[in-house]
Each structure stands twice: as structure tokens, then as C-alpha cells.
Amino acid sequence: MAVDELFAADVEAIRAHRHDQGGDYWTTPDHRLLKGSPFNMLECMQYLLELGVEPQDPDLQAAAALLWNCQRPDGRFRLYPKGAIFPCQTAHAAQVLCQLGQSCHPRLQVTMQHLFDTQQPDGGWRCEKYFFGRGPETAYSNPYPTLIALDALRRSGRCDCQPALERAAKFLLAHWDIKKPIGPCHYGIGSRFMQVEYPFRGYNLFLYVYVLSHLPAVRGDRRFLEAFHALQEKTVDGQIVVERVVPKLAGLSFCKKGQPSSLATARYREILQNLG
């Protein structure tokens, strides 16, 4: 996939943020890879890939090398030089490396095994950091990291991952019914979740339907179909109209708020193709 001329300025705008954090490749001198949202390293890599930049691009390859340097022997990724390592960090790192076409890399398979080994009884992934205190809702896993881990695992190429994928999907489908904020980080399904956000960078209806649509086992599930039809009702002439975008991305043409996005629509058509 090549970059369309319509989006060449977006690519250059994202590249222009490369030194914002004081280091290179959208990070800090001490390599805090998630600092500076929405122009942190992992997000910028995903924006460029979404815009059609090839995985072999020198900037993406250099950023990937920094990411690999953060991998621990047990497969986890330490995306900050100090502090705890959270499951969400490992899931995001694995997802980005899969998007770069490195899903079969032996080192990434170690990470995939770590994700298998740390899946919780409810089917999700969670940490023990209680930012909002403890309560009955914090006994659940965190939905958004679970969605990202699910996306990474379904890209992994492993033939033995189907049971894990289905368990994660069941957890996420259960949240469609629960709706209330759950998990230590309190991810809920409310009015904000139901707004179409693009590019994919948070727990919202569009990403939820997109990831789950890749699992044949859930396509006939009542909860998935409700979510899909809710997304379908938001389309205009078969196109995805962006309802929410982080303000710092508002100047980019591929994700203008209130306007149809051809790239977002391409993801929607992928959903339709998955549903056959």
C-alpha cells in the first residue's frame, strides 16, 4: 500500500513531530515510548501505517528497533525506563509489531506466549494498579487492554490461539451488556464509547466492532450484531463520518471531525467483508 497524494501532507506532519519529546522517533532521550500522546512513538507508527507508509520505511524500522530494545526476556515490554510494567503496554507493543508484519518473529512469539499465560479467568487482561480505588467493578479485567491483546493475538499467526481469542471475545461481549465501567481502569460503554473515533486509539464502538469482526465465532452473537448495527446506523452513504478525534490531530486531513474519512471507511468495508 502506497501513500495517496491526498495524505502526503499528513505523513509529513506526523514526521515533523519526531523530535517533540527531545529524543528521536517521537520519544524522549531516555526512551519513554508512550509519552507525548497523541504523538508518542507507538501512536505515530500506527498513524503512518494507516496512511499507507510501508513497514520497511526507515523511520518505522528505526522506531521498531527502539521498541524491540524494550522487550524483557519473559516477553513483556517495558515502555518506560522506570516503574511497573503493565499488561496494556505489552499488548500495545505486540499489536504495533504485528502491524509492522513481524508477527512470526521468534521474539514476538515469546510475547504472545506471555499473553496466553497471563489471560485472566474472565477472559481478559488486567493489572493490579487501582487508580480509582477498589470496588466490585475492579474484580473484572480491563476491556480496552483486552481488546488490544485480542487484536495482537488474532494477528499472531498461531494456530492454537482460537480458545484464547474466544474467551477474550466473550469477556468483551459481556461488557456490551454490563455497560458500566469495569476493571481497575474503569472502562465503560456510554455516550463517549458510542462516538465514532478515528484513528483507532481508544476504547470505542468503531475499534470494538472492527476487532471482533475478525472472529468468526462471534459474528452471529446478538451483542456483536447490536454493536455492528449501531455503527452501521452512523454511516452516511456508506461512509464513516468521524465523530471524535483528539484535538491535536484535528489538522490532519484523514480524520477530520464531522467529515467522511476514506481511510476510516476502508476499515468499515473490511468489517463488511469479514461479515461476508
Automatic annotation (TrEMBL):
InterPro entries: Terpenoid_cyclase/PrenylTrfase (IPR008930). This is Terpene cyclase/mutase family protein.
